[in-house]
Design a protein that fits this description.
It contains 18 helices and 26 strands. The protein is of the alpha+beta class.
Length: 720
């Protein structure tokens, strides 16, 4: 059975019967707007105007550092013909119009925020603009073409009209049947706006993150969880904690132990005194080394599912060359640890946190507490990093259950140790990379990816939100199991590669035994770019070609890859590094964007120094240039950290790392100079939050090979 994410969810949407697909601009659907205010002009879910003249935008994609707060405001501001800083921006609550067209739930991920909002948000703003201009035209007895909306005011000739004064009149007008969007030649802000709207509040400490949420009398909670995946609580003894300063309550919560106190420090200190007896569960004895050995055996013995096959197998002539590549589990390690504030109310629960998926959070809390979704009110905030971690809502559910069982308002805060040992990890994966080489020509590229399935674990969370509540719970697990063997994340970036060899094939073999998995910045591309771009470098060396020349010779000269790779080579002065330094490169497409990077390193006495990274990106039309540059820089540092330091290991079914001393981050002195070049494009915007990450690991490994002659096929890098 072949199930892609998109096709499966399309089918399940039909079965569900209640899924709202696409964007409605009427604001008059069956679902009321959760942020509606009496007297406002609100033609759709995205934007409204108050009688006081405030233009309010609902931020339906969360801001976790990637720039959506400014990027989406720029789209709205362009059609309202006003500077983005004039908008009042609010974190949106769930509404069907906010459903992501790729994921079919209200979700921030997949580098989709600007790409999927580019037209809907501009249309939403254009509708408001047109209603106001029509109201002004009727009030002044002129044609609508004589009315301008500019910088927060309406103008009819020299006469200035306050938009708030037209709200009631505009509310009575029929909504326009057609909308005319600004042509690119008239853009004032798209492609030019570079001031981040959240910069001042974040730099002055006035921005509100989930961890900043306050509620009168709220207790601090620490949760003690089983360190062994799949394990359970046998017993606990809290007698030693009795009488601890500030301690209020200790209770069991769904197989864990919650400690409530008047502040976090008191809760943590009391928690350290509790005696715990855990059943290690089914993964006892499982180690990272054993899982790697199992994947290697699966690669040798299992054919798996053919994901892509292009050309004829008979074209694979010459000598077969194959090697194995490996990557470890990785944690997200967000700056802000997981947290949520939950308060019992007369009607249910009210929750404050930072989430990538508000809709999924409401559904998960409803299932865990037995409450109706209508009884759960969620307030979203800025996220101190997400990287895919906050798509999962375990921390929100934990806070909700502690509040429900204790009957008290509770702020749950994870420690860094909690965060490291109870993450949803980037999968540990292997790839058997093979090619046939006939003289100086590569006749085939054959890849077998072996990895556990993120999709199989995550899909049930989505189907619970999409499908009717009366379906038995086992249905969702069955759906996940069915889809797991066709996990698109396991092979994305391997298939549809830009290299034009006569025969190409990609297979996927699923490893069943694993730790909890989640989406990590750039998902499967993060490892698959390392696999394929490292191997392409090996093929270049094997055929006696320069790595750049080999790549270009095997690409379509009209492709974006060819253009981006040529640009980065020129900008980095490829082939002419400073004395004692060496270069490596890689190019990769992810989330609709093509990114190429050249890394320059030196190795002196066994000490590696990364001197410089030059990056070129084609991400379609650029909305906020400096934000795109910042995201490329961020993605490079994120990926470089993982390549140099990132490794989560299991022993006895438990994570061995605990904090930044043994799960290190790249420090300022280790961070190279980064130079980013944006290629001009008239195509619609594509993703920028994640595409900077995939090429950095292979470019680094290829540079180390140039410096040392040692080929690195396993991350994090280790060389002699």
């Amino acid at each position: 059975m072949s199930v892609s994410r998109r096709n499966f969810i399309k089918g399940s949407a039909l079965l569900g019967g209640s899924l709202v697909v696409g964007v409605s601009l009427t604001g008059c659907g069956p679902t009321p707007l959760p942020h509606a205010a009496a007297g406002d002009l609100q033609p759709n879910a995205f934007i409204q105007l108050t009688p006081q003249g405030d233009f309010i935008m609902q931020l339906h994609k969360v801001e976790m550092g990637q720039g959506t707060h400014t990027g989406l405001a720029t789209l709205v501001a362009e059609e309202l013909n006003m500077p983005p800083e004039m908008l009042r921006i609010e974190h949106a609550q769930f509404h069907p119009d906010f459903i992501d067209p790729d994921f079919y739930v209200m979700l921030t991920g997949g580098s989709s925020s600007v790409r999927t909002s580019f037209t809907p948000l501009r249309e939403a703003a254009a509708m408001l603009s047109q209603l106001l201009r029509q109201a002004a035209a009727e009030q002044q007895g002129v044609g609508i073409e004589q009315v301008q909306l500019r910088d927060g005011s309406l103008y009819v000739g020299d006469k200035q009209i306050a938009p708030g004064s037209l709200v009631e009149m505009a509310r009575q007008l029929p909504q326009p049947e057609t909308l005319e969007l600004k042509p690119a030649t008239e853009f004032r802000f798209i492609g030019k706006q570079n001031t981040r709207l959240d910069a001042h509040s974040k730099s002055t400490g006035t921005a509100t993150f989930g961890i900043d949420a306050q509620y009168p009398g709220a207790l601090s909670a620490v949760l003690l969880r089983c360190p062994h995946f799949g394990g359970s609580l046998k017993a606990f003894d809290a007698s030693a904690a009795e009488g601890s300063p500030g301690l209020v309550q200790v209770l069991e919560v769904d197989g864990a132990v919650a400690v409530l106190a008047d502040n976090y420090w008191h809760a943590r200190q009391a928690a350290n005194k509790i005696q715990l007896d855990w059943d290690k569960g089914p993964l006892a004895g499982v180690s990272s080394d054993a899982l790697r050995a199992q994947r290697h055996e699966l690669a040798k013995t299992e054919e798996g599912k053919v994901v892509e096959e292009l050309g004829e197998a008979s074209a694979a002539t010459g000598e077969r060359f194959e090697v194995m590549y490996d990557v470890p589990y990785l944690a997200h390690a967000t700056m802000e640890p997981m947290n949520a504030l939950a308060v019992p109310t007369e009607n249910g629960l009210e929750i404050w946190s930072g989430m990538q998926g508000v809709q999924l959070a409401v559904d998960a809390v409803a299932r865990a507490t037995g409450l109706e979704k209508s009884q759960i009110q969620v307030h979203n905030h800025f996220l101190g990093g997400g990287f895919g971690r906050r798509i999962q809502n375990d921390y929100v559910v934990e806070a909700a259950r502690i509040a429900q069982l204790s009957g008290k308002p509770v702020r749950l805060i994870w420690s860094r140790e909690d965060d490291t040992r109870h993450d949803y990890y980037r999968p540990n994966s292997s790839a058997l990379m093979a090619a046939t080489v006939d003289g100086d020509t590569v006749s085939s590229l054959q890849i077998k990816a072996v990895a556990p399935s993120i999709f199989g674990q995550f899909l049930p969370l989505m189907t619970r939100s999409l499908l009717p509540a009366w379906l038995p719970g086992g249905v969702h697990e069955t759906i996940g199991d069915m889809a797991a063997g066709s996990d698109p994340a396991a092979t994305e970036g391997l298939i549809h590669s830009p290299y034009q060899f006569p025969y190409k094939r990609s297979n996927y073999v699923m490893q069943e035994l694993t730790a909890p998995l989640g989406y990590w910045r750039s998902v499967g591309h993060s490892q698959n770019a390392f696999f394929i771009e490292g191997f392409i470098d090996e093929l270049a060396h094997r055929t006696g070609r320069n790595p750049l020349d080999f790549r270009l010779a095997n690409m379509d000269k009209a492709s974006r890859h060819y253009r981006v790779l040529s640009e980065v080579a020129k900008r980095a002065d490829w082939g002419n590094p400073p004395a004692g330094q060496f270069q490596g490169l890689a190019v990769h497409e992810s989330f609709g964007s093509v990114v190429a990077e050249v890394v320059t390193v030196s190795v002196d006495g066994g000490q590696l120094k990364v001197h410089k990274v030059v990056c070129a990106v084609d991400c379609g039309m650029v909305v906020n240039p400096e934000i795109v540059v910042a995201q490329m820089e961020s993605g490079i540092i994120f990926g470089l950290t993982a390549a140099l330091k990132g490794e989560i290991t299991l022993q006895d079914g438990a994570v061995q790392q605990s904090n930044f001393h043994d799960y290190g981050m790249l420090r300022m002195p280790e961070t190279p100079e980064i130079e980013v070049h944006l290629l001009a494009s008239t195509n619609p915007p594509s993703g920028v939050g994640e595409p900077g990450t995939p090429p950095i690991a292979p470019a680094l490994a290829n540079a180390i090979f140039a410096a040392t002659g040692q080929r690195l096929r396993q991350l994090p890098v280790s060389y002699t």
